[in-house]
Amino acid sequence: MAAENQAAVTPMCKELREQFERDGYLVIRGALNESEVHHYEQALDRVYAEQARAGRLSPEGSMHKLSAVASCPETVGLIDHPNTFPLVWSVLGWNVHIYHSHLDVHPPIRVEKPYRFEWHQDGGRQNRELESDPRPRLSVKIAYWLSDVSETGRGNFKVVPGSHVRNWIDGPPRRDVRWPEPEGAVEVCAAPGDAVFFDRRLWHTRTDNYSDITRKGIFFAYSHRWSYGRDENDELLDSAACARFNPVQRQLLGARLASAGQVPGDHQWGHYPQTTPLHVFLKANDLLDPAYPPLKP
Which Gene3D superfamilies does the annotation name (predicted)? Predict the structure, then answer.
């Protein structure tokens, strides 16, 4: 896939925003077409085969590979995809980057795994150290599905709709103690090419895959550029591949954007919108919105 600038010009509509604020997630049906699904699945399969040869899979044969684009540059077209990326900047604004991403492959499990309570909110220590109730959103995530999870029991993403405004849910004293599922929990069903956009605070888990289908997905988490990133992209940003990425993609991958006379740290804080590619793009397309703080001109 060509790494052309495909940043879309259609912001999140009022109805989708209301649904997102109510439920904490959206399912984007057909975000990727059949050709795109084939392209990204082939790229994911290549990385999986490399990890298998290197002996880096889990005992069950699964892969959870961090820094998605650094690990698989072919996936760069997903990070500003026109069918999903507008949701990101509509919610977080223009001063964003991808702070965390991963490539996931989970083959069918043939022997039942020991019970483990895996319900969580994304963000790690954020959920211990921030004091407000509810805690701030801080980040959003997009999951692209490349396998058929249109039925339950295939390692589906499981969520509690509306739980993004709850700091806590009932849980066991230890993760290995069996515990009832949270009230209202649902498995999200999705076809290949569908995407799920969700608030990091949404209580969610990955279910075990006891089906005959290998679960495949690619995940990108976006936050503001003043937050610390987990992805390791330094080598990627110095590579020939990065030279082919568009300016918005380089911003999202953490490129240093400060030019002569600009302080790098201040640039990440958003003090230089005129040299921040996403701000330039949104301004040129009249997509800044004085009524919404993250998109104020």
Answer: q2cbj1_9rhob like domain
Q: What is the pLDDT of residues 141-200, one digit of tens each?
A: 999 999 999 999 999 999 999 999 999 999 999 999 999 999 999 999 999 999 999 999
Cis preceding-peptide flag for 264 (omega within 30 of 0): no
Strand-pair partners of 64? 104
CATH number, span 14-295 = 2.60.120.620
Q: What's the alpha-carbon Rg for the chain, to the nearest Å?
A: 19
Let me know if 64 is exposed, middle or buried by CB neighbors in 10 A (0-12, 13-18, 19+).
middle
| The pTM of the whole model exceeds 0.85 | yes
Buried b vs exposed e over 190-223: b needs ≥16 C-beta within 10 Å? bebbbbbbbbbbbbbbbbbbebebbbbbbbbbbb
Partners of 101 in the beta sheet? 220
